[in-house]
Amino acid sequence: MGEFNKGVLGAFSGKVGSVVGSNWRDIDYMRGLPKKSSKPATAKQLLVRDKFRLLIQFLTLVKAVIDQGFKNEDTRRATAFNLAFTANKDAFAGTDTEPELDFSKMIFSKGSGVNKATGCKVVADGEGALTVTWDAISGNAQALTDEATIVLYSEEYNEVVVQVGALRSLNTAQLEIPSNWVSCTIHGYVYMTSKEDKNSLTSYAGALSVL
Asked: Which domain of life is it from (predicted)?
């Protein structure tokens, strides 16, 4: 795909012959029409498609979370969603014929200058609730006002619960979970956001089996 700026024809939008012009984020692009192929997809191509589908489906569930988590990255030529997709492109397990997402490797945020939450854990807290904990931080009083974004994901039900706003200084947050989340595995994630709206890296809080 070519990018142009005030070319001999100037910017244009739409299809002209075999060329398509478009504008995205104030950048003019020109690309050729894709060529149709009659060849069947190879096993490798099918594997890539399956991985893309799995990852896109999962990230769509947490779009609001990654919109915040990647907002401080360079989004001039890529959306937060696209950046999150790239960051998670290797988060797979399973086999070449049956790929699976590796939920322990999921990344919902990127940043620098904000301490990553450490020692994160998901623990049961009575019926219908879970508690997420993290280690206390010392030597950085300003970080105590950081706010946690917490994500709980039910693998079997393919649903998420998100909580935003628990102060880092509390070292814990309680979240209610849907009543239908039974006999399932729940994965937990935490990232911190400072008063300046900067984000930490994502911490995996582990998995918990709920009976």
From this structure: Bacteria
Residues found in the chain: 211
Contact (Cβ atoms closer than 8 angstroms) between residue 154 and residue 181: yes
Degrees, nearest 5: CA angle 71-72-75: 65
Which among 117, 122, 124, 174 has a CA at the least distance from the CA of 147? 117
Residue 125 is classified by DSSP as -
The encoded tokens of residue 106 equal 């999921």
The residue ranges of DSSP E strands in the chain, in sequence order, are 2-3, 14-16, 19-24, 27-32, 92-94, 99-101, 121-124, 129-133, 147-154, 159-167, 172-176, 184-193, 203-210
pTM for the full predicted model: 0.83
Q: Which CATH class is domain 43-210?
A: mainly beta
pLDDT-derived band at 29, boundaries 50, 70, 90: low
**pLDDT per position as a tens digit, 142-188:** 999 999 999 999 999 999 999 999 999 999 999 999 999 999 999 99
How far the first Cα of the chain sits from its last, in Å, is: 51
Rg of the chain in Å (alpha carbons): 21
